[in-house]
Amino acid sequence: MGTLINGQWITAEEQTRIGPGGDFVRGRTAFRSTLSADGPHPPQAGRYHLFVAHNCPWAHRTIIVRNLKGLRADVSMTVAHLRRNDQGWWFPEGVDGLQPVDGMLPLHRVYARADDTYTGSATVPVLWDRAAQTIVSNESAEIIVMLNAQMGDPGIDLYPEVLRAEIEAVNAWVYTDINNGVYKAGFARTQEAYERAYHPLFAALDRVEARLARHRYLVGDTLTLADIRLFTTLIRFDAVYYSHFKCNRQRIADFANLAPYLRDLYQTPGVGETVDIDLYKRGYYGRSPGLNPRGIIPLGPHLDFEAPHGRG
User: Fold this and answer.
1) Is 247 an active-site residue?
2) 56 annotated active-site
3) What percent of the chain is modeled with pLDDT above 90?
4) What is residue 22's predicted lDDT score, i.e. its pLDDT?
């Protein structure tokens, strides 16, 4: 792996960011522009490209919204190779002036093209402006809001204005305690740091379970970006986070409401086709020598997301 320093890729052993108490610390995103009719990135079909990785839950959000908004023809997309190497995420195909060399386009070349002084990680997802040859955003939470508001089918609104305050309130604790919580548990370097993540994680899942007893989705009876943000963690939970990250109080399959809710989301047209459980297992178990030094990929569990959900 490695990092960019002033636009130059420096190969180094991958280092998980750890705070002084042994807690996992997630890095910050650096490219935070927006799509707007009167700005440098106008919403135009064919102008934008997504660099994603199927194994990454943050990138997975953008793939789902691209599908739900009917943007597959309007926003092109390339998928990273499952296995990162000393060049980080890399792609077997390119876009426009960014083309593979010897069959490989490292993502760090995309970042350096956007800013030849950039210092930091080269992460997915990336929303790339093909006309301006620069990165619009590498913040998944903002990319999905942009795609929902500015492009695709206007009849599909995953972030309705009347629900935005509640969506953002839910997103805040779901992100902290669930989306990022599984990583804080999995990458903790001390028992105390692990427990600081483990208990809020399951308290938050219990909180979601209680909400789902009252209505079909996280925010009432409307599918929103809040559900999509939670889905990409839940779909990986039983196969990966439960055992690999020691998030093992109970499986999602053991919750009375969360389990059928997950099946409900999976069976939404455009969502289930983005899921590949075997790939997730290979991606997580296969590249975590600190957690799984022999790289053995578990064969189970058997997960049936096509079973009736009963939440219509």
Assistant:
1) no
2) yes
3) 87
4) 80
